[in-house]
Sequence to fold (365 residues):
Amino acid sequence: MLPIPRILVSLTKASSNMAKAPQNIHSKEVIEKIKASRAVRETVDQLGKSVIQGDTNALARAITLIESSHEGDSKQAEELLRMVLPFSGKSVRVGISGVPGAGKSTFIEAFGMHLIRQGKKVAVLAVDPSSEAGKGSILGDKTRMNSLASSELAFIRPSPSSGALGGVARKTREAIFLCEAAGFEYILVETVGVGQSETAVHSMVDFFLLIAIAGAGDELQGIKRGIMEMADLVVVNKSDGDNLPRAKAARQDIQRALHFFPELPSGWIPEAVLASSLESSGMEEIQDVISRFTQHVQTNGYFAEHRKEQSRWWLKETIQHLLNELFFNQEEVKDKLVLTEQQVISQQVSVTEAARQLIQLFRTK
Ligand code: GDP
Fold:
């Protein structure tokens, strides 16, 4: 819940003075409205300031606000984002993907702790459109992130609850800005290795890391080609014990495969490295790859260009989403849609013509 703003107290005191004011200046109703809006504004201000000061409890509340689907909250969320945006942008945003069981959570624990030992602040977010509130399939249980979860330098937030991928991803992207404003230097965005959500995560991170494991002879099995093509780094996890020789062979196969993929727009040549999240080995090398990548893209201008491109992409995506909402919620459209559907089904009118007619109706209302 939002903190009880101090202004509420002063307003309550002030209200007794206001009662003496001539009735014809402001009706009681108007005064109530003014009080309510000032109180809300003060609350969002306070929340934003606390986030910027690095208060992680406030950060959690702020993310809850942007995730809220209550109509009244969206204005406050917009206000909050406007406030924190100038303080965001200064982190390295890393997307982390891999098939279930590849070791994403274990890796995040190991890599996160590696960064924290250097005094870095690490935030972990997730995009999992399949998860339901309270029983998310990723990050729902933090048992593999024990040390990270108890570290003061870490912030872990499960995926926003189930919903369309676009909405889940949009909220996670906004959560990135909030985390950055709170001073987090590394933002790790975990996602399930199934395809579409990778594309969404790719559109909000600077660096894309794929966790792979050595399989029984077919190293590339289970990793969709499209996901591999996005990777800036493939980490062959579980390179420990008896598995080490297979992991080494897998790394070579993957490195070879990476050469056959089209060149990345960043000009970066993707790498494959060995790691054991369980033994916490390979973490330094992974950090080094991320640092070299960051330096590479900052030097050639891709870093800034990519973020601009992402903003443009999200603007278009959000416009489409909002238009969609407006369209399907318009009463006239809702009424007409039932009839139009029947006409389309009975082939009295083509889909294109029907759609155009509905859009025409929408635009005239
Ligand atoms: P996720 O589904 O991708 O998040 O995978 P988890 O992190 O939950 O790990 C799945 C299983 O693999 C767990 O039993 C982990 O203990 C194990 N695991 C993860 N990383 C390693 C590793 O580096 N070496 C070994 N031997 N096992 C690992």
In short: The chain has 14 helices and seven strands.
